[in-house]
Write a structure and sequence with these properties.
4 copies of one chain form a homotetramer. Chain A has 357 residues and is an alpha/beta fold. The first copy, chain A, has helices at 11-23, 46-54, 117-129, 153-167, 181-185, 201-210, 224-235, 262-271, 280-284, 287-299, 326-342; strands spanning 2-5, 27-30, 37-41, 58-63, 93-95, 98-100, 104-110, 134-136, 170-174, 190-193, 214-217, 242-246, 276-278, 304-308, 346-348. In chain A, helix 3 packs across helix 4 and helix 10 runs parallel beside helix 11.
Chain lengths: 357, 357, 357, 357
């Protein structure tokens, strides 16, 4: 590791930094006369890095060296080595018929919130027929106001179970409360951790322990390092099945609900071996822009798309402005397939329904 | 209420909106030939408003009328009335010796994280002597990385209990997990809901049910309406003791850690009857700027200040860059007192220690 | 037009608004008893709208009706009509061999700043061979510091003239000062108005008067309406040849220099008939992400790409981190061509060099 | 200087960096085996720094050492010295009766735009009587739309000249175009460079050459280093009379027009010897919040306030929502005076009118 200290740090603060280094089993050496640059040698992992970053007087860790995290594309290695080891290959996360990463691209589609059971089954079949490999649908909804519809909750989970059975599609649904992880996990093939809960670490730890795959949405104002460290909370519990999702950051222009950060997709594909998908529905906030943003995300390298679909957007309980209909989903899937072909990637679609047992 | 529909909404969408209005007991009337402006009359509360906002086709609620929330300074009233009723007076939240709102200003001080017991007692006494009316200190720490120090946890709560006893100061400490509300509430005189948990609605509901006062920090990218609606989750559970805290929003300039939004303080004092305080430590991220920001916050109308204090910042486990020492705290308290005097507000300080039973 | 007044506006303010309406030849009618919604009928153009927006007491123009601007995709029409007229078709801007809009896509490539003449000619030929239809290169450079290289200035213009001649490519170059419009226009086939000058209205007026095509970059913190109104300054001078450029907005994450706002591209293609291109180089700020962002921009609907290219990025005078080499440009052009084919759009490339006179 | 290179930079890039160092008369020495940290010794000024920052392969200048700029509070000094020299004392900028910096605080007040002459004289006298030391008023207005009122222009300058004469107050007014510097400078005692022109370097150079004091507003999305470097364009032309102005940055919450960044004020007072004032009117965008923001700015250390005042806000041609009346100005001035007293600073007010010759 290479760390930079504050300028003219008082001797007792320097001593304290050196003492912590010794405790961590790291050999420290100042590179410069001004005692601002400290090179550390030894087996320190990311815990060592975090401990050092927290110290008063430490400005920045300039080179993490061996202290890399589980999410890192480049494996940990000593700082002075001729070079780092070969980058880690893509993690492929498989959920039912869907696969994300390693050249596999999948589309997740479904309503914002779970409504009536018949409607949900109709949607599940409809999106499957149009090439979606997974169903999305919220039973527990995170809402800004206590007076808004908070989702069908446990009844919603039952309807999702039925829709799974009827459509053969795996299901991703949001969990908001660590106390609900067990109940939601009994139905969900994949947990969604929403944008507002990216920093909810007790929840991240709980879904990490569950072993169930996790779709982790970027907080709408989170840096990419914050997103990756949120994923690390799940990985560190022994659950390797994390799919990251870029869903738009908060901007200042009212034309779109959020700003889809395609540079984040491109950067994440280099920084981590975890799959990355995009959510054009929440980014756009307007149905008529969803298709363009889905294209942009996959063109930037995303391993999938999650999109809100509703056959009758006018009846939607929440976020109705951004749901697309079946016909538009068909166009989105066709676009994604064509974009995959440009790259020798594969759009994964479910087997025909009749093949189901 | 007055709502605006999308332009050229199809007849079935309009019918659906009107049907929902009827269900809500509201009489609807279009104001214009273009059928975009709908005036609603009736006893609809904020639930009605939320239900309408969620409807596809509804662009915005232009005037909430009777649908105002519990936090509102101006009480709900019918839209066409000659005027709204008189504004609601300030809620005064009392926690131990501290009072916030209604012309009362208090300073909360203490370490970022609870460390050793002797140290904590020393700090508690030290901040009390310098005029702080409450002690802050984190036992459960929200951290960006799973490898960072997550706080002394239950041991930290015990140390807080001891520091309360020794100093006579009431204590505010953060709670991160709804499952910890009971344990934390056994010690805390006030729960802190941190910036990262402002949207953690299960946690808000749980602290709402506890009846214990709540210090609710604004998410670093939350709008003021989002903050107020987060407070509403607590108020709606019957807990009126909510203090809002502006702690800086995420900006783009590295000179300060966050941007203290003093305009938010000024706006909130008009929009709600709840007290508002500022956290200059997290806003500045640099000890040498804390005093200036504390002054700015109180000058803008804040009912208090929460500030990180440590007698030996060099030893701090986290965020050591931003803690101020006792001498600087003394200057901050003096500034706050002087600013209160300009306004006929009162800085509330604890009784001298010897008066304690 | 439909405008919304502040609530409970005093009678003299209302009278003043009504007087201004009369002066503008508009018939005004309140829609509601609360006197907040005012419907205006008459031939008022965008000047009327601006005048009204400036008035104290006017909260917002909800519907511009006939007051639409020259950039608008949807033509001006009366508010109460059965519907607006058909949308305006794409403006096609032609600059030398390049065409933007109406299904035509072109790539502009070249160095950040003009350096030596031989080098520039080499680059011009190199990018032409790889499919770029225009050459970019800065002679006058906008810099953050007065001590930075400000460009080769007039000598740079001469070198651009030579590179044009040798390569047959049209040239776009930045103008910073209204006093330089004539000199720069003697060489440039297209003026670039950089991000920092989007709000420099005297400069916009001057390039508007010149009649030379204009590449107008979005300010890195400008809303899309602000960008379109900046274009309107050029259009209003009788110069219809404006190409808009999304080049990334300022974000909070250091992974990329800026955030390429692909939602802006998608929105602009609906809001205006003007062509829209993307600048992935300034958005990414890192050569290795440029290709992904170029793809994302064109997939979102952009009519072209402007990209920094340098055969030896290590020698670049400014922004060397973001220039790509010839081989990568070839990949970018191939990607753009493939993306165009998905949409039945056409990548416009220059005629083979030997055909030149 | 201490600079950090990219990791594993190829040998030819390293050679080029070293060659440039030699050209600049700097002795370079690698601090580490990985060849990432380069210490430079020698008399290199800010030009050297800029040249190095521009080089491909240079990640960051970690310590500017002798390359500090004219605006810097801490004077340039060699890197390895025992310490830097004593900080530079405050620059005091005097404009007519007003003084900014060095413990002097002044209030600038007046209308957004210059309207009729009688009205302007009335305002000038009115603000003088209430303690403002300078008059503000725009003759040339920067507007977002070409159809908005662009100011009374040359006629406005004449009216300003008359108001100066009648009130005895010095005048600050905006200049938008380098070609207008002479005409505006014939009347203005101080040029205003508006937020949208902070990066208009030809304009900065021109006002720098004029020698007339400059009020430089921070771009609404500019970092503080960008603001200081904009000031450097003026200082480098030999004009030391620059007053910086924080006027709010663009945020995401509609409650205020912009976010007044009081942390910027506190930081700037440490980073530069130039005076810093705040503009609460543009920050708030709402008259009722102006007073609170003026207080916050001065409490944070600002050397003055510039505020929009109009005796009949309802008649204002632009930005009428944010102008305060005479009575509120009186309260603002009283607040500023009281805040100055807390700090042993002095509010500078004009001599009584009758003393004028």
């Amino acid at each position: 590791m290479l760390i930079r200290l504050r300028k003219r740090l008082p001797p007792d603060a320097i001593s304290r930094v050196l003492r912590v280094c010794t405790e961590l089993g790291l050999k420290a050496r100042f590179l410069d006369g001004g005692r601002e640059l400290l090179e550390l040698e030894g087996p320190g992992g990311p815990e060592a890095r975090s401990r050092l970053e927290d110290l008063a007087g430490v400005l920045a860790v300039l080179d993490a060296g061996s202290a890399r995290e589980l999410f890192a594309r480049v494996p940990p290695g000593p700082r002075q080595a001729a070079g780092d080891g070969p980058p880690v290959g893509d993690t492929v996360v498989q959920v039912g018929a869907a696969r994300f990463g390693g050249g596999h691209v999948s589309v997740i589609a479904g309503p914002c919130a779970v409504e009536g059971e018949e409607r949900l089954v109709e949607i599940a079949r409809g999106v499957r027929e149009r090439g979606a490999a997974m169903l999305r649908g919220g039973a527990f909804k995170p809402r800004t106001s206590p007076y808004s519809f908070q989702g069908a909750r446990h009844a919603g989970l039952e309807r999702l179970a039925r829709a799974k059975l009827e459509s053969g599609l795996a299901v991703v649904t949001e969990v908001l409360d660590p106390r609900d992880v067990e109940a939601v996990g009994a139905v969900a093939d994949m947990f969604q951790i929403g944008s507002r809960n990216m920093t909810n670490t007790p929840l991240l730890v709980e879904v990490g322990r569950s072993g169930v795959p996790v779709l982790l949405k970027r907080g709408f104002m989170a840096t990419l390092r914050e997103l990756l460290l949120a994923a690390e909370f799940v990985l560190a519990e022994g659950n390797p099945n994390v799919v990251l999702c870029e869903r738009g950051i908060r901007g200042f222009d009212p034309s779109t609900r959020n700003v889809l950060d395609v540079g984040a997709v491109a950067h994440l594909k280099r920084a981590t071996h975890l799959p990355v998908i995009v959510d054009p529905s929440h980014a756009a906030g307007r149905a008529e822009l969803v298709r363009a943003l889905a294209r942009a995300g996959v063109a930037a390298g995303a391993d999938g798309v999650i999109v809100e679909v509703h056959p009758a957007p006018v009846e939607v309980h929440c976020d109705g402005h951004q749901a697309i209909g079946f016909a538009e989903l068909e166009r989105v899937v066709a676009d994604v397939r064509a974009l995959c072909a440009l790259d020798q990637r594969l759009l994964v679609t479910p087997l025909p329904q009749e093949v189901l047992p």
